[in-house]
Design brief:
The complex is a heterodimer.
Chain A: H1 2-20, E1 43-50, E2 55-61, H2 63-70, E3 80-91, E4 98-112, E5 123-128, E6 133-135, H3 141-149
Antiparallel strand pairs in A: 1-2, 2-3, 3-4, 4-5, 5-6
Chain B: H1 2-21, H2 43-52, H3 54-57, H4 72-86, H5 97-112, H6 119-122, H7 132-145, H8 153-168, E1 195-202, E2 207-213, H9 215-222, E3 234-244, E4 250-263, E5 274-280, E6 285-286, H10 294-301
Antiparallel strand pairs in B: 1-2, 2-3, 3-4, 4-5, 5-6
Helix pairs in contact in B: 5-7
Classes of the chains: A alpha+beta, B alpha+beta.
Chain lengths: 157, 317
């Protein structure tokens, strides 16, 4: 009986501590593990905010894609990947005056084996919603390809 | 009977000691203004700050009789000394405009998070507590002074110059001597290859930021161990100017700085368990003239005390 009481006490203490300091995490903005983003091994290229839509996006890419966006080399025959992740913005509850990502909205993936300027040969995919349910978009994606590939890399010395 | 006598003597001694120590008083320099003091912000905003903050954050401290009793007055004197050193509205004119704005946003945010005025003070000075209406007045004032983003060719030109240098320059990783700050923290060029854990748009100072985490940080997020963060965690925050383009989008302008928080609860015990460092401009100029510049970082991050001093809720990729 005593032992059970002790166990309860210890559990209570542990639980109590956890309640005092809950985990720090932005759940609604996280990408589902099933998307396996980290396996792509991409670098961060830039960030872009659309105040009208209230969205914030981050552009990622592999080294070859970053090189092309920087206008450094025009090495054509290598694989290039760009990923633009877009979130809804929310007011930062911890800092009046800041906005941070909230719900994950969509992920756009661009792949090419030549240049992104060769729009015809860019593979464009869009994944929407919190679970990023797959949807291939064949309609009017040239505008999006043009827009995404026109983003200038942010200076990160 | 004997017991009662002992008690009486003890009380008498205590009273004597209490009266005796009243001789010892801290020196709290106070300025009294004749006539009106100049308005710093607006009538309403000034009135709120005077009522709630001026006792500790100006030279016009107005102490109540119970604040002047030893030993309470020593506690108050310590609060006033620390309070004035971080924020003093009597010296407002002597700091630069951007610093004034940053301090005011910080002040209002400390109020919103319930960190200021100090709880120990409002216990006896209930008139210093801010009402919901007071806080709204302060928020509205801040919104009215927040910089408005408009397309700006000067900013574009500044970015173009920096961008050109950056794309032809040697990468920082090839620097022979990486800059070291006054506390011995070395600039970490690898931050840009880490995984971003969040991004922020700051309307208070017209910047935008990406926050990166090193491998240990990313593992901690995956394992739900972010409060506290494990030793070895490094968080890096990069800040750029905001640039508004013709399509209305906001993109990064010139690179301004990288800041680091390096977790080591032994080595950095005296600074809330984190090493704090800031490197400015693409030359990575170390910030901070004296080792204690970190007080500034910690004081602004203090409302996040129960969150391991971290503002950012990290998202998982």
């Amino acid at each position: 009986m005593k032992r059970i009481q002790y166990c309860l006490l210890i559990f209570g203490l542990l639980f109590g501590c956890q309640q005092n300091h809950p985990e720090n995490r932005n759940r609604e903005a996280s990408l589902p593990a099933s998307f396996e983003f980290s396996k792509l091994g991409l670098k961060t290229i830039s960030s872009i905010i659309n105040p009208e839509l209230g969205t914030t996006s981050t552009l990622y890419g592999n080294d070859n894609a970053l090189e092309e966006l920087k206008g450094l080399t025009s090495n054509h025959m290598v694989e290039k990947t760009l990923v633009l992740v877009t979130w809804k913005q929310q007011d930062d509850p911890r800092w009046f005056g800041a906005k941070i990502p909230s719900d994950l909205k969509l992920v756009e993936v661009l792949k090419t084996k030549s240049s992104f300027k060769d729009y015809e040969n860019v593979d464009y995919r869009i994944y929407e919603g919190r679970t990023l349910g797959n949807r291939k978009d064949n309609l009017k994606n040239e505008d999006r390809i043009k827009f995404i590939t026109s983003i200038q890399p942010a200076v990160m010395p | 009977m004997k017991k009662l006598k002992k008690l009486k003597i003890s009380l008498a001694i205590l009273l004597f000691v209490f009266l005796f120590i009243q001789i010892y008083r801290p020196n709290i320099p106070v300025e009294h203004h004749k006539g009106d003091t100049p308005i710093l912000f607006s009538n309403k905003v000034d009135a709120i700050l005077k009522k709630s903050c001026y006792d500790c954050h100006s030279n016009q401290t107005d102490l109540k009789w119970f604040d002047q009793i030893t030993p309470v007055n020593f506690l108050i004197a310590d609060h006033i000394k620390k309070g004035r050193s971080g924020l003093n509205f009597s010296d407002w004119g002597s700091i630069s405009r951007p610093d004034q704005n940053a301090k005011l946003w910080e002040a209002v945010n400390q109020i919103i998070q319930g960190a200021m005025p100090l709880k120990s003070y409002t216990l006896l000075h209930s008139e210093a507590k801010l009402s919901v209406k007071d806080i709204q007045v302060l928020k509205d004032y801040l919104s009215s002074i927040a910089p408005k983003q408009i397309p700006d060719t000067a900013k574009v030109n500044a970015l173009n110059r920096q961008y050109k240098n950056w794309t032809v320059e040697k990468p920082a990783a090839e620097f022979k001597d990486l800059p070291v700050d006054i506390n011995g923290i070395t600039f970490i060029p690898d931050y840009k290859n880490w995984v971003p854990i969040s991004s922020t748009q700051r309307e208070d100072n017209g910047t935008m930021r990406i926050i990166f985490g090193n491998d240990i940080a990313i593992k901690a997020i995956k394992e739900h161990q972010t409060n506290p963060w494990p030793n070895g965690t490094i968080l890096a925050k990069v800040a750029w100017d905001q640039l508004k383009d013709n399509r209305g989008n906001i993109t990064p302008g010139v690179f301004k700085q990288v800041e680091y928080m390096i977790k080591d609860n032994h080595k950095y015990r005296s600074t809330a368990g984190w090493g704090w460092a800031r490197f400015k401009t693409p030359k990575f100029e170390p910030y901070g003239k004296t080792p204690s510049f970190t007080t500034e970082c910690i004081n602004c991050h203090r409302p996040m005390e129960n969150n391991d001093f971290v503002f950012t809720p990290p998202l998982e990729h």
